[in-house]
Design brief:
The structure holds 2 protein chains of 2 kinds. By secondary structure, chain A is of the alpha+beta class. Chain A contains 5 helices and 8 strands, in the order E-H-H-E-E-H-E-E-H-E-E-H-E. The radius of gyration of chain A is 15 Å and the shape is globular. The chains are: A alpha+beta, B alpha/beta.
């Protein structure tokens, strides 16, 4: 099963992955439209900046996913190696935020439900937008 | 072919079905429940009452869950006794088992109150109780809720959305004492009161007469709907009557086996080992029930595994204000607060470890804290200043981060 990995040494902290992710999941056809009219779509990947090192983090699609086991509604499930959220069943209780060890469940004030990386499965982007957009190839999709 | 029987049909029971099926795809599984419903999410009853969740979405698992997992269901029947390899039912039937799981959850605790027998009251524990309340509630209906804990305030929130006129009374001097400290309780109380819900603390009902409650502080509260949400008690009778060990809840080993051979227990009816305080507790929370049930199921099916790293942990919101808490609150405290923005953070350190936290308002990435507590990662292995600032993967050293994220190529 291929997963997204981030090479810390190569991450420039340019945050482009966040913009590509947010745009890809916004439903808009391109980035300009996604961010038009003051819209601020939320990225599901997050860049952490340190004094010496930077890296992006997103859902690890865990083998033994505690977010799925904790979900009080059954909205989170894992199928074909990918953890995704049925937004029609999420009530925004944030129990998955409580349990995700990587801090990869995303919440926002404009959304009652959680958002998370599903490897761009639902947005017709094909390959994950973060991987495609990373200018320094720090983010890769590969089997390990 | 092994015969598995599960009494109960909520999170622990479903966890057990999934646990059994991950090991044994052949054995016969029977689920017995006194409720007539497909498994539904109990915490969703407040969302259902307020209308945010419809009938089709209250279900905890998809409609074909039982067929897919080859589970026989016996709904609307109550198990009255266990023993001798059989479960006895209230309809006179008997069900044989090789391995039995008790996943009977808990029931509302209703303390004696003078005149309570003269009024109609509701509890708020299952779908039927929510349905009964929904039938009676209209705009401006006067509702009195006894109990300012998780259940009472979740009921209040739902009724607030239905524009009821709500008063909550609690004997304690603060709200949500099971998960919040004094200060966080104050911030949440103000938040709820600002929305128009009345909260009366340090008082209990002296007497009910007609549809009026006279309180011990001299106040009187008129009501059309009365909800008693003072607390819960585990359903331990089946195990106790069969001679199994019961303390505050059903006692099990780490494989979730009770002291009765071939009988397991999981969920709100059992005692768990809280690793953050190194003590035995009832951890009445859904993730715990599911994971405990899953471990029970695997062991029932013959795969030895232990239930470890359980801690109290809650994610819940009231009237739009989110709280995430976990662990134990005894130790050295680090607190930050912005009351105007309704933000509060408390971290509790002890024995060189993060033991617990309370986050209110900004709960972003709280799971990183939860994992540090569950995995008992020593503070010497993390950047404590970054940890205090906010939950982030940067707080781990490079080696541990590489292990967690597999971030290194090659």
């Amino acid at each position: 099963m291929k997963k997204v990995y981030v090479n810390e040494e190569w991450c420039l902290a340019c945050h482009l992955c966040e913009y590509y992710c947010a745009a890809a999941n916004s439903g808009a056809e391109n980035m300009i439209k996604a961010f038009a009219n003051g819209n601020k779509p939320i990225p599901r990947i997050r860049v952490e900046e340190g004094s010496k090192i930077n890296f992006a983090v997103q859902c690890r699609h865990c083998d033994d996913p505690i977010c799925v086991k904790s979900c009080i509604t059954g909205a989170l499930s894992k199928k074909d190696g990918i953890i995704s959220c049925d937004e029609t069943r999420c009530v925004g209780c944030y129990t998955c935020v409580l349990t995700c060890p990587y801090g990869c469940i995303v919440t926002s004030e404009n959304s009652k439900v959680i958002q998370k990386c599903d490897l761009c499965l639902k947005n017709n982007n094909g390959d994950p937008a973060c991987v495609k957009g990373c200018p320094n190839k720090a983010i890769v999709l590969e089997e390990r | 072919m092994k015969k598995y029987v599960i009494i109960g049909n909520s999170a622990a029971a479903i966890g057990a079905v999934q646990g059994i099926r991950s090991v044994d795809t052949e054995g016969m599984i029977t689920v017995i429940s006194d409720e007539p419903y497909h498994t539904y999410s109990r915490p969703l009853i407040s969302y259902w009452l307020e209308g945010k969740v419809v009938d089709e979405k209250i279900y905890y698992r998809e409609p074909d869950f039982y067929e897919k997992n080859n589970v026989m269901t016996m709904f609307g029947v109550r198990a009255t006794a266990i023993g001798g390899g059989y479960v006895t039912l209230d309809n006179g039937g008997k069900v044989a088992y090789d391995k039995l799981l008790i996943a009977t959850g808990s029931k509302p605790f209703v303390p004696p109150m003078k005149g309570l027998d003269t009024v109609d009251y509701f509890t708020f524990m299952n779908w039927d109780s929510a349905k009964a309340i929904k039938e009676k509630v209209k705009e401006n209906t006067k509702v009195l809720i006894i109990g300012a804990g998780l259940i009472g305030l979740k009921a209040a929130e739902a009724l607030y959305h239905l524009n009821a006129d709500i008063t909550v009374v609690d004997l304690a001097d603060r709200i949500l004492p099971s998960i919040l400290d004094v200060r966080a309780g104050q911030i949440m109380q103000k938040h709820i009161e600002d929305k128009g819900t009345k909260i009366i603390l340090g008082a209990s009902v002296e007497e009910f007469s007609g549809n009026t409650a006279k309180l011990t502080n001299g106040d009187t509260v008129d009501f059309e709907i009365l909800i008693v949400a003072v607390g819960v008690r585990p359903n331990t009778e089946l195990v106790a009557d069969a001679g199994g060990k019961v303390e505050k809840g059903i006692v099990t080993d780490l494989q979730q086996q009770t002291t009765i051979p071939d009988v397991y227990a999981a969920g709100d009816c059992t005692l768990s080992h809280d690793s953050s305080s190194d003590s035995e507790k009832i951890l009445a929370l859904l993730p715990n029930a599911f994971m405990q049930g899953e471990i029970a199921g695997k062991n029932m099916a013959g795969q030895m595994c232990l239930y470890l790293n359980a801690i109290p942990m809650n994610a819940i919101g009231f009237y739009g204000l989110h709280i995430i808490t976990a662990g134990s609150y005894e130790g050295e405290e680090y607190v930050t607060e912005d009351a105007e923005k309704e933000r509060y953070k408390k971290l509790i350190f002890k024995d060189g470890k993060l033991k617990g936290f309370i986050l209110m308002g900004d709960v972003d990435r709280a799971g990183i804290y939860t994992s540090i507590i569950r995995e008992q990662i020593p503070l010497s292995d993390v950047d404590v200043e970054l940890l205090k600032d906010h939950p982030q993967m940067m707080l781990f050293g490079k080696a541990r981060r590489d292990e967690k994220l597999a971030g290194k190529i090659g």
